[in-house]
Amino acid sequence: MTKDDVADALDEIGTLLELKGENTFRTNAYHNAARLVQQLPGDLAQMVADGKLAEVRGIGEALALKITTLVTTGNLPYLEDLRASIPVGLVKMLRLPGLGPKKVKALHDLLHIDSIEKLKAACESGEVAKQKGFGAKTQTRILEGIAYIDQVGHRVRIDLALPLGLALLEQIRAFPGVIRAELCGSLRRRKETVADLDILVSSADAQPIMDAFVKIPEVIQVLGQGPTKSSVVAGLHVHGTKVTLQADLRVVEDTQYPFALHYFTGSKEHNIRMRQRAIDRGLSLNEYALANETRSVPCKDETDIFAALDLPYIQPELREDTGEIEAGELKKLPALVVDSDIRGVFHNHTTYSDGTASLEEMALAAKQLGFEYFGVGDHSQSLTIARGLPSNVVRKQWAEIDRVNAKLEGVRILKGSEVDILEDGSLDYTDELLAGFEYVVASVHSHFGMPEAEMTARVCKALSHPAVTMLGHATGRLLLKREGYKINLDEVLKVAAKHGKMIEINAQPSRLDLDWKYVKQAKAMGIPIVINPDAHSTGELALYTFGVQVARRGWLTKDDVFNTRGLADVMKELARRKQSPTV
Ligand code: DGT
Ligand code: CA
Ligand code: CA
Ligand code: ZN
Q1: Are 495 and 460 in contact (CB under 8 A)?
Q2: Which ligand 1 atom sits nearest the alpha carbon of residue 4?
Q3: Which of 117, 277, 282, 317 to pair with 502, CA 20 to 30 A apart?
Q4: How many angstroms is it from 227 CA to the middle of ligand 2?
Q5: What integer is the mean pLDDT of 399-416?
Q6: Are residues 309 and 226 in the same domain?
Q7: Residue 336 C-alpha to ligand 3 middle, in angstroms?
Q8: Atom number, ligand 1, closest to the C-alpha of residue 194
């Protein structure tokens, strides 16, 4: 456990005791101890081992004992018991502005409120305002706070968060006195959803930047403004959706910038490993420096920090403590795939099914993006809600593809289909028709509620069909809206590897399915990955970049991704697969 972790635990104890109505003297002792621990010089574990903790002013015998348990075992039964003794709703209520532990306890005592839902109801009926120490103003503020949590308390998809983040960043970079600026946190790591925006700036003078930041037009509300840190709520309409996110801006000296950039990029788990690496080398790494009592290691960028800890540069997408440190030590970090490596796409829709553009329009838009091939993958006959193609229409489409290909230059339409995997795992076209496609994407679009074993068997059966080239959106999830169907992906990957099938990363930002964690696993099993935008319009072809981000988080190199190959190579491989389908 790090000092920060111990401090968090002590703060939590203090707060939970306040919720229980403990006297201020006792609760403050925990909060004070949390600050003390954070500021202790040297290695906490060492101090504990040497029995030096109780000598620190403000940390008595009892506290030293608890800290020792935390540091040596990683948890504290006393805290666990305390947590269990308090309704979780009370802790959640602390997130609301103006509600400290004392007020939450009062609401619990007076009105038996133990959840945000009950609190909302009591505010709406005016009960809260009648209580001593509350009043109409507090009640309104609580209701606003609840509305805010509803609105921004949840995570936001990367395709919506990124434009807002970039809009803020662009304006911040133009402020006078800004030396360097970057979006950090989960957004820089290109996680599929983010909770807030973490913006970092270096400058010799923070105040003017703080002042200018809160005046940016996208800023809706100022939550807090200090000398070097401001928190706001910022909003922007992106593709017809109002996106609202908390944005924290921190300003540091330019010499501190690389350390702060690394720290606020995270992930927390990666940071913890890096901090330990520094400790192993007699140094301490935090958001300001890499140093010890006698020296400070100057670093002009993140590469210098990694180098000082005997590591090559680690891309932000890999910083999840899922092996990047170990791979770095062995000089085995992957050269990650980049957008410009992608030379075509396979899973897309046209006006034949539920797309909005014609074959030719889609192909020309693909060419505009620099693609050499546009694979059409309209829906199959059973998916009537998405205007799936009956077999005669498929043949009509093939004829049109031949006509359009004859006149197109620089891009080729490939004849594919997104074929439904039916309830029993069979495919939605006859084998005879399937044999006429250059490739087949097989996807589940129905009967999502099956038990896991059945769904797994269904998809595995489809994957063992000779006509199938790749699996589409493997779990059917819709981020922040719908969990995927229950399926054993380990088993699916095994079957895909056995039959030499590919798996798609569906790049629709609402899907990003296969998840990056399984992408990494698929790579280890030698399964080729295909990045598909699943475009339903010409504009959506560009969504492939979100798929590239998932691929990068899944450690993929150019060679791991099938559609980084050129047209001739792709056509040859697809033809080979049709010749010897199970190889
Ligand atoms: P999010 O906001 O949930 O999408 O994910 P992050 O990773 O952006 O998390 P956030 O905003 O809470 O913090 C930004 C970064 O700051 C995080 O990735 C790593 C660093 N950080 C935050 N809290 C801690 C901590 O307690 N310990 C360490 N070592 N780093 C932390
Ligand atoms: Ca964040
Ligand atoms: Ca944050
Ligand atoms: Zn689909």
Answers
A1: yes
A2: 26
A3: 317
A4: 21
A5: 98
A6: no
A7: 26
A8: 4
Does ligand 1 lie within 6 Å of residue 54's CB atom?
no
- Using a 6 Å cutoff on CB, does residue 268 contact ligand 1? yes
CA 344 to CA 544: how far, in whole Å? 10
State whether the beta carbon of 350 lies less than 6 angstroms from ligand 1.
Answer: no
- Which pair of tokens denotes residue 379? 């829906």
In three-state secondary structure terms, 574 is: helix
pLDDT (tens digit, 9 = 90+) per residue, 82-99?
988 998 889 888 877 778
Question: Cβ distance 248 to 197 under 8 Å?
Answer: yes
Q: Are residues 80 and 197 in the same domain?
A: no
Domain of residue 23: give its range.
3-152
Q: Contact 458/444 with Cβ under 8 angstroms?
A: yes
Query: How many secondary structure helices (H) and strands (E) does the chain include?
Result: 25, 16
Ligand 3 centroid–CA 196 distance in Å is 5
Residue whose token pair is 């609202």:
244
Residues with CB under 5 A from ligand 3 (ion): 196, 198
Q: What is the pLDDT of residue 151?
A: 62
pLDDT tens-digit series, residues 360-376: 999 999 999 999 999 99
Nearest CA residue ID for atom 9, ligand 1: 185
Tokens representing 20? 């229980």
Query: pTM for this one?
Result: 0.77
Q: Which of 119, 152, 185 is the last residue of a domain?
A: 152
